[in-house]
Model the fold of this input.
Amino acid sequence: MSSHAADGRDFLCVRHLTVSYNETPVVGDVSMDFDNRAVTALIGPTGTGKTSLLLALNRLIELKSGSSVEGSVFFYGEDAYRNELSPEELRRRLSFISSEPTCFPRSIWENVAWGARVNGYNGDYDELVENCLKRAGLWNEVKGMLRKSALRLSGGQRQRLCIARALAVGPDALLLDEPTSRLDPIATGRIEDVLIQLKEDVGVIFATHDHLQAGRLAEKTALFLPGAGGYGELVEYEDTDDILVNPSDKRTEDYITGKHSKGTRYSV
Amino acid sequence: MNGNGPGLSDKRRRRDSFLRMLIIVFSFVPLLVLTFMVLTLADRSMGTRISIEGRPVRQWTLLRSVLDRDEIGMELENCGSEAIRSFHFGLTPKFVFSGPSASPEDTGLLAVLAGSFWILILGLMISFPTALLTALWIDSSITVSKSARIASAVINQFMRVPHVLYGIFALALFGRLEHSFPGFGVRSVGSAALLMALVALPKLTVMMVREIDLVLEEIRTAAYALGASWSTVVFRQILPASIEAVFAETVRISAGLLGLASPFIVLGASQYVSAAPRGLGDRFIILPAQVFQWSLRPDEIHRNLAASSALVLLLCILLLNIISYTWRRRISRRREGLR
Done:
């Protein structure tokens, strides 16, 4: 890890970031600093560009048709969008996990090892797979069936397999998009346990529309709401306790307490 | 409520069931036509034959042999005491698997079938890799690259060009080549294979773009998210995930290509070849062209050959379609686990 990591401050900085699809911004003018020692939650209603922001952090957004990004993302002080480090390297170190837990149509072992292999890992693969599955809390459930197809796993197990797969490439942080939106409460609880364990050695940034989940997991929370331009804006970025218990912004309080009824909703 | 569902009158129910019946009947029309076609060909491929000293003189189709018994009896008497009446099956293993012969009663389809499959396989060997690379490029860059969008549009139009025009184009092109390279024959297996590759290319490319597009977007995203480069994602995730379906669909497209006659007739498929082709320079003949040529002949005996070989062609196409269909089913059953 780079020496910048010592204070954790220079880990990931976003400056005036605007993400647009076909010239229409979905999230605008975001400036925030992420801390790789803390779990950061991005909360807000659907359509405020939380996912787009996550994708923009590691340049995965460039694969989506019609997308464009303005502003800068600094990863340990290097400007990601000025090619100071390659997108592949950036994506490896900021590993994105989508809300749809999609396994590769291969064995469980292959799923975990694939990312490490394409990144030229030359250690002991069995050890790596075991280690990653343990960290993702999946080892005990799958240790007897590592060579079986990953497609036989349940949704919650798949999501944990995706986490193990991401861990195998040695990321600095995991970017999770709605990691539990498709899971039942028990599976959700397991994922949350895993994330709490993981924050000891990797950064975790996740998007959710469930502010209670943010309260359970995150040290810092950023709230996105539709702004005057019709696209998502960063309303508040504070310690989670401050946001949930005594928000400084009226809109935050309304969102947390669910006060938005039709008509008054984010009036322009 | 009278048990027929709320608010649905008897009149509307009757209209519904009538419409449903009508639709079912119409959807069976293709099957009826196909059955009729096969029955007609089968009728023509067998029947009563009068031969003198082993040489067939006249022949009647199966239906005619039943209906015109008296006429056949009179004809037999007219032909003299040497004439023999026999029942003839066109579609025998001997007919399918024996080599060509100048006399129609001994001729077989082996050379023709060999020509058809040689040209098909050689053509696919040229166009399959080309189409695959094009499809991979189009699929991965259509969102970002204008040239990929143009290429995709051009290929889609290219696919709609009538087949006979490919033949005319190939004739013009290879004719010029023959001029400059004396060894290069227009009417050879090699140029027919090139023509086959040309016809197959847009079909294969469009099919492959569609199949590759079916690979879940999340698989790509997940692979890129692990830090994989473009070529790694394409060759180690997208290609392995789609290649089996691509093969199955290629078999299905081959069935269509196997029945293609017009461009090859324009290019000059031979009327008669004496042996199965051994090299790229040999003259070529393919099954549908052979059917076409035999069906042009006025005599009943050649028409019988045409019908029998048409049945062979239909069987080959049916076989390829069944292979492709069952393969496809197996793939989609396996894919159901993906979602």
In short: Residues 1-8, 261-268 of chain A have pLDDT under 50 and may be disordered. Chain A touches chain B through 31 residues (CB under 8 Å).
